[in-house]
């Protein structure tokens, strides 16, 4: 595919409280065995994109360790390349650490890439899509820039803070605003932009020249009505992981087979870093219902509606309901958890009862002992 894939980092709208303290949003664990970035990166590699640049806003170590050289994602090491890039100078303030600033700092790698087109998208929207279809629609439309969007009737409660698009009858974008939850039906921008590499570089430079604090989405908003910017609708499943509440809701939602089938499609694998730990062991005292459980665990207690990462121990007589337990955590005997997110390496031993709600799950910090 004649396109450079760029996985952009998120702005302040995507803030997964607690989990984002220890790693960038793309590196946050999801559904027991994946990281959030796995979905957009798999979309690109499944579409035949062999040249991929991943931009990281901060704390790059976890992301670098997870992605490696890209071989786990099917990137051809002879023909293609995965680069992990970030601002190599100290910004005066976090507000200057924008995507436009980072793209300017790393523009030499974009200029040197042989691909004619650029497809840029963030990782915190999870969906499955063939970018060959997106690029084809972009070329056929004759647009300077195409924007992928999701029409939704759930805008009052979901996609809050995201960009929403106003389109005319020909799908040309005439305005961009924030979704404040004031209406049911909106066209939500997935912040996935398609254009030629020349237009992309000019667009990045214009954004940076407009303001040192501008993001690409700011320049896009200013350009609506001036440039030929077209919308491409996507009607499949989209999860927007931009808060702890939405991270929890979407995780619980994807336990349902009919929902999961829309994201985990046949013939469209979601790649991730492999782990060769042993199968999960269930003892005679264990029970698990409506759960997603990774390998390497020891389950002795009772679980209902939970998502459990690798190498977790759930002791006997522990009762867990609608909770997310991340890798290498340990839940002791007689502990009762409901609507709780336990981060990696945490131990819940002394406190025997934690009860959150679906709208306000309790978060237990990474490596914490409670």
Gyration radius from CA atoms, angstroms:
21 Å
Helix content: 10-25%
Q: Considering the protein shown, what is the CATH homologous superfamily of the largest domain?
A: Spore Coat Polysaccharide Biosynthesis Protein SpsA, Chain A
What summary fits the major beta sheet?
Answer: 7 strands, mixed
- Spatial strand arrangement across the major sheet: 5-4-1-6-11-8-12
Q: Determine and state the CATH class of the largest domain.
A: Alpha Beta
Question: Unreliable stretches, pLDDT < 50, 5 or more residues?
Answer: none
Domains (count): 2
Mean pLDDT: 94
Tally of contiguous helical segments: 10
Q: What portion of residues belong to β-strands?
A: 25-35%
Q: Using DSSP, what is the number of strands?
A: 28
Give the N-terminus to C-terminus distance in angstroms.
50 Å
In brief:
By secondary structure, the protein is of the alpha/beta class. The protein is 23% helix and 28% strand. It has two domains: 3-263, Alpha-Beta Complex (Spore Coat Polysaccharide Biosynthesis Protein SpsA, Chain A), CATH 3.90.550.10; 281-364, UDP N-Acetylglucosamine Acyltransferase, domain 1 (3 Solenoid).
Structure write-up:
- The protein is α/β, with parallel strands linked by helices and 370 residues long.
- It has 2 domains: 3-263, Spore Coat Polysaccharide Biosynthesis Protein SpsA, Chain A (Alpha-Beta Complex); 281-364, UDP N-Acetylglucosamine Acyltransferase, domain 1 (3 Solenoid).
- It is 23% helix and 28% strand.
- The protein contains 10 helices and 28 strands.
- Strands 5-4-1-6-11-8-12 form a 7-stranded mixed sheet, with helices on both faces.
- α4 (99-105) crosses α7 (197-210).
- The radius of gyration is 21 Å and the shape is globular.
